[in-house]
Amino acid sequence: MDPITAYFQLVEARPELFAPSEQIPLCLEEERLRAFASETGRPVGLVYDNRPYYMVLADLCRRADGRLYTYARVVYPRSGSNGVVVVPCRMGRFGLLSIFRHPPRAESGGEFPRGFAEDLSPPENAAKELWEEIGTRVDPGALVFLGEIQTDTGLSAGRVQVFCAQVEEAAVPAGNGEGIHGLRWVSEEDLREEIARGVITDGLTLAAYAQYRCWRERQGTSRPSAGISLH
Fold first, then answer.
1. Burial (CB count <10 Å: 0-12, 13-18, 19+), residue 80
2. CATH at residue 137
3. In 10 A of CB 184, how many CB atoms?
């Protein structure tokens, strides 16, 4: 299927992704999209389909003077939840994965477990990620929902749910296939120091920690998480 045909199928199936706006008007005339692609040689439509994970759109937008231009964005197959991230706590410490990330082709300075949305509820998906990435089983009902993150509104429409979990013994499963090769437990003081020094730079991890701190403040405590009931 060509990208423009696939694009208009998505317009029909997911109209909320194509909401009208006076600030950035979309051109949703198929003939105009095809003419623009032919005249400019630029990709237009659903230009990369990586379902069940994500899709890349090149929308045709209209400036105030009527000129057309393309504007790329990442959208997700599921509305509502596009993924989860979990803050694992154990004996007052935070669990950080040692992981090699493909996009920057480099080691990450430390990340909380996370994953794309699947055909599960967000708590079930979070529990699944904990099992797959740090080898610990947690009842989805025992997870604390901390809030949502929009990871990059300039690029993506995604919403990620954030959870906190008290875990027992944990170890990275061998042969996980995700570049994960270690798990370390750090105090909150060390976590904050690594953030300040630029060791931990992963956006989801930083945002999840911010959600965790706000949750703790709402609980009216500054004690380590080991002293907080998660039920």
1. exposed
2. 3.90.79.10
3. 12
Counted domains in the chain: 2
pTM over 0.85: yes
Together in a domain, 135 and 223: yes
- What range does the domain containing 29 cover? 3-75
Per residue in 44-74, pLDDT (tens digit) is: 999 999 999 999 999 999 999 999 999 999 9
Residues 125 and 87 in one domain: yes
Same domain, 124 and 64: no
Domain co-membership, 65 together with 155: no
- How is residue 7 written in tokens? 């694009």
Distance CA 89, CA 138 (A): 12
Q: What is the DSSP string of 159-189?
A: -EEEEEEE--S--PPTT-SSSEEEEEEEEHH
Rounded Cα–Cα distance for residues 88 and 83 (Å): 16
pLDDT band per the 50, 70, 90 thresholds, residue 123: very high
